Amino acid sequence: MKNVQRLSTLARPLAAAMAMAGLAALGLAGCDTATANTAAAAPAAPPITAATVIVRQVTETQEFSGRLEAVERVDIRARVGGFITSVNFKPGSVVKKGDVLFEIDSRPFQAEASRAEAAANSAAARAGLAKLELDRSERLLADKAIAQREYDEKASSVKELDANVRAAQASLQAARLNLAYTRVTSPIGGRVSKAEVTTGNLVDGAVILTSVVSNNPIYATFDGDEATYLRVGRDAQRGAPVTVKVGLANESGFPHEGKLEFVDNRLDTSTGSVRMRATFDNADNTLVPGLFARVQLGGTEGGKATAVLISERAVGTDQNRKFVYVIGDGNKAEYRPVVLGPVIDGLRVVRDGVKAGEKIVVNGLQRVQPGAPVNAQLVAMDSGQPKGDMKVAAASGREKE
Known about the structure:
Blueprint: H1 2-41, E1 47-52, E2 54-58, E3 62-70, E4 73-77, E5 82-87, E6 94-95, E7 100-104, H2 107-142, H3 148-180, E8 183-185, E9 190-192, E10 202-203, E11 208-213, E12 218-225, H4 226-237, E13 242-247, E14 256-263, E15 273-280, E16 292-300, E17 305-311, E18 316-318, E19 321-327, E20 333-344, E21 347-352, E22 359-363, E23 375-379, E24 386-392, E25 399-400
Helix pairs in contact: 2-3
């Protein structure tokens, strides 16, 4: 019995030691499990594509909204009153300078021209007779057969009749002009509108019969901002050629090229803009006055500048700010606000925020977090095609396979 009690007493510390060892083992196992779970929960660096910021010599352009305008526009009116006898054009057709558009009843004007012609002939006959009598009076005066007073009267009568002849000829000329004005012609070449007055109506100079607008060349008018004026205004006023391109609403790009023709002499302080106008060739009549036009204003010939360029895909929007992600040390994404310029050849000009040689994220912006590592594949900035398996290096900034 004593031996049994002694064994029981020795077993208790041993059991306690084994229990403690078991708890320690369980604790170590729990730590290993937590560590494994933590490692499994750590997110992998998201795969993205990046490109190197490039620098090029470019001719900077700016885009504006504008309207096409005719170089010449004429409201056609009658110069004499009368009844319309014929309309000689098809609405919307192209007419040449001098084409007869309307005819007015010419009979009253023909009669007036005939009367004026007869009056002019009568005045000329009287003047001719007076000159013959004056020549006769000169011979008689030399022979002292008439008095000086009688000779002076005949000389004065000749001058008066000559004046009457000139007045009669002026009346005849006016009558012939009015007769010609019964044929209403187009003063310019271009496209005619519809006839506002039809045959049989009585018209006068207050009535607009139709209108004609020229179609070649044509203007594109737009409002440039202050920066544009400072960039090209002085060159344009000196006559230096400034390229302007336009595109219509149903066209892509800017297929029509012209020259800046006019820059206003002041900036409108209420709008901060300046009126500008470019001239375009329109031999195919594609451009029509009144149409909306997208205007791209370039610079003077040879006026190239160095610009930092990035892809449009690399630009994100944060409320009212634009930003890019620059890949910095340790392949970590750095949030960088940028100031953007115009688009040139598919790339966006960056005025401030990034430098040449820096690498920025161009695809996968939605998977990037500021300060988080990324798994970047390098592509060309202007093509978007991967350059093999090249990766963005870490802190050294070198490229590796």
